[in-house]
Please model this.
Amino acid sequence: MKTKRRFWMDGPYLIWTAAFIVIPLFTIVYYGLTDKTGAFTWSNIAQMGTPERLKALVLSLLLSLLATFICLIMAYPLALILTKMKIGATGFIVSIFIIPMWMNSLLRILAWQTLLERNGVINQILGFLHLPKQYLINTPYAIALGMIYDFLPFMLLPIYNSLEKIDSNVVNAAYDLGANKLQAFWKVIFPLTLPGVISGITMVFVPALTTFVISDFLGGSKVLLIGNVIEQQFTQVGDWNVGSGLSLVLMIFILISMAVMQHYDKDADDRVTAL
Amino acid sequence: MKKVLSRIYLVFIFILLYAPIAVLIVLSFNKSKTRAKWGGWTLEWYVKMFQDQAIMSALYNTLLIALLSALIATILGLLASFSLLSMKHRTRGFVLSLLDIPMLNAEIVTGISLMLIFIAIGQFLSHWGYTIEFGMMTVLIGHITFNIPYTVLSIMPKLRQINISTYEAALDLGASRWLAFRKVILPDIMSGVLSGFMLAFTLSLDDFVITHFTKGPGFDTLSTKIYTEVRKGIKPEMYALSTLLFASILLLILIFGRARRKTAASSQPAVY
Amino acid sequence: MSNKLIDLQHITKAFDGNVVLDDLNLYIRENEFLTLLGPSGCGKTTMLRIMGGFETPDRGSVIFDGKDITSLAPNKRQLNTVFQKYALFPHMSVAENIAFGLRIRKKSEDYIRDKIRYALKLVNLEGFEERTPDSLSGGQQQRIAIARAIVNEPKVLLLDEPLGALDLKLRQDMQYELIRLKNELGITFIYVTHDQEEALTMSDTIVVMNQGYIQQIGTPEDIYNEPKNAFVADFIGDSNIIDGTMIQDQLVEIFGVRFACVDTGFGTMKPVDVVIRPEDLELIPVGEDAEPDSPAYQTAVSRATQINPGFFEGTVSHVIFKGMHYEMEVQAKGFEWLVLSTRLFQVGTRVLMSVDPYNIQIMNKPESEDEMAVKLDEHL
Model:
C-alpha cells in the first residue's frame, strides 16, 4: 500500500525527467561521438576547430562575457536603489522590470532594429541634436546591447532578492563598529549578496553565450555566433552528428558555469521566487 | 543629490526597458505596411488580424500549448514536490539537481536534445509501423519539460512551511486523507500552485527556442511565425496581436495581483 | 554617581506623522545601568537608535560627554550596540566578527588576537574562534554579539532587547552574566526591554516609557513600590487598581469603605486611582456561617482592624498554586481582587481582607492623555 502510493508520487516526475531530460542529453553525446554509420569518432568535436567556427565561438564568449559584465554593473546599483525605496512601492517597482517580459521576446528584440537602424529612432534623435549618425545595427555591439536588454532582469532579480534578505541591523552593526559606507559595502553587503551575484552571472552568461535569435535579428547575416553555427547545422545543413559534436563543446562551458553556480548557490528556491 | 542621481538612473533603465515596447505598440497603429515608414494612425491591423488564418491558428496553438503545458506541468510539479518532501536528504539533493538541468542548461541544447530523442523514438517505433509527427504533441512535451522545474520550485517553499500537525489534526477530527488534503494542505499551498501555473504559462507563451526545434513544418506558434516572417518583413497584424496579448496579460495580472494583495492584507495582523 | 555622560534634550521624532517620541528629556550618568522599559511601540527602541546614530531626531539634541553628536554618523560614535537578534555577520567566523571593528581601526594583528581571546574569555566562549554564527545557539550568538561590541572599548554599550529571543532559563542566566560583565568592564549600559522582571533585576535606574513619553524614572525599588501613575503600576508587576475618593489627607474611600493610608496633599473629596499590590492584601478567614455578632466573627474583625480600620468582606473564588505561593481571586464589593499569599484559602472560604496603610498607593487620575504623560525632568 505504502510503496504503491510512493510510486504514484515519485513515479511520474522521475519517468518524465529520465525520458525527456536525461536520456535526450545522452543522445547528444551519442550523436556527437559517432559518425553516420554509428562508429565512434572525435571528428565531430574537432569540427569546432575550423577558423570560421572558432571565430564564432570566440566572439560568442567575448560578447557574452561583456554583456554579463555590463549587466552586473548596471543591475547592482539598480538593485541597491530599489532596495532602498520604502516598502510598498517595491512590489510595484519590481513588477516594472517584469512587465516587459509579457511582450513577445522575439518582437522586443526586433524592435531594437527599428531603434538602431540607419534611419532608426536613435539616429533621428541624434540628427535632431545635430550629432553625426552612428552605424549601430548589424554590429557586435548591437548584439551585446540586445543581450543586455534581454537578460538584465535575470541579473537584477537574484541580486535584488539577496539584498532584500539582508537584515538591516547587520549593516547597522557594521556602521556601529566603525565602518564607513564603503567599508560596510565591501565587507558586509557585497559578500552577503555574492550568491545572488553568482546566480545572476550564470543566468545571463549561459543564454547570452548560446543565443542565436539576438545575433540573427541584430547582427544581420554579417555576425555569426556559435548558437547560429549550431542551429544551422540542425535546421539547414542537417548534419546532426556535427551539430551534436559542436553542442558538446558548448556544453563544456555551460557545465563550468553550472558547477560554479551549484557551488555557491545552495538554495535553488531563490531563483524562482525571483521570477 | 544622491536621490536625484538614482532617479535619473531609474528613468534611464525604464527607457531602456520600455522603448522597444513603445516602438511595437506604435507600430501596431502604423498605417504604412513597412516599419521603416510612418503612415499615420490606424486600427486596421487590429481588425485584419482576426481574418488572417495563419496568425489565428498560430495564436490558437500558442494559447493551447501554454494552457495545457502549464496545467500538466503544475500537476506533475505538485506530485514531484510531495515526493521530494518525503525523500531522504541525499536523494533529494540528486533530484533537485536534475531539476536544475533544464533551468540552467542552454535552451538550444535542451531543444536539440528533445529533437534528437523524438527522432530516435520515431525510428524505434517505425519497426512496428508507427511514426512520430513533429507538431503539437512534441512541442507540448517540450514545454512541459522545461516548465516542471519552475512549478516545483514555486510549490516547494510553500509546502515546506506547512505544519504537518494541522493535517494530522484534520485526520484526528475524522477527515479522510483526501478531505484533509483538500481542506488543510491545498489552501496553504494554493498561492504557490497558482504562481507556478502562471509562471509556466508565461514561459510557454514566450518560448521560441524549444518550439523551434521540436515543431515540424507547417506547425507554428506566434514566436516561430514571427521568426520565419522576419526576413520577408513582419506583418503589422503581428504587432497588433502582440500588443493586444501584452495588454490583456497586464490587465489580468493587475486584477490578479490586486485580489491577492487584498487577501494578504486582510490576513496580516495589525502592526503597532 | 558622577556627571552626565549622555544628555538627551527635547528629543522629538515622528515616523510618517506618528509621533514616537515627544519632547523627551533624559540624562544618563557614567557607569550606570539604565533600562528603558515599556510596551512595544512606546518609543524605547527609537530612543536607543537615536543614541546609536541610526535615527536622527526631528528636534532636540544628543549631548555625549559635553559634545553635540546629534547628527554624527554611527561609525564615529564612542558607543556600540548589541542588536535585537544579534545581527552577527553570517559570512564571517566568530573571530572575524569580533575583529571587525578592530580591523576597521587598523589595529595590529597581535592586538586583535589578544583582544579576541580576552573577549571570548569574558563571555565564557573560549575556543569558539573558528565557528560560524549559524552553528551557535541563541545564547552563544548573544555572547558573541556582546564580545564583538566590547572589544572596541566603547564608553557606552547599547543593548536592544538582547535577551528577547532566548528561553526563560537562559534569559535568567544571561541577566546575571550581564551584571557581571558590566561590573568587570566598568562602562555604562543602556538596556531596552519590555520585560519588567529583567528591568527590576539588573538596573540601577529604570525609565518607564509609554506612547513616546517618560512615565517615571527611578530605582527598581522606587518604581515598584511607588508607581507614579496607574500605567506604571499596571506595567510593573500585578496590581489591583481601583477607583477611590480621597476623603482627606491619609483617608481614602474605596467601594464605600474608608481606609487609612499615608498619602497626603491630594485635596479633599478628590477622585483618585488606588493601587494595592496583590502580595500586600491580607486575608483573615471567617467561619463558614459565623453570624456578624458571633465571637468568631468579632475576633476576625478585630484582627483586620489592627491592620487597617477599613476592610472588606469577600469570598475566595479561584486558587492557583504557583510553586512559591498561591494566587487567589477574592470577590468583594463586586470586584475581583488579586491576592498572593503563602497560605492557602480554599475556594468558597469567607474572608476579611485588609491592607497596611503603607501599602496603599494613591495616584491622581489622569484628566487627559497629556496629563497622563508625566514629564519628569528631575532625575532621582
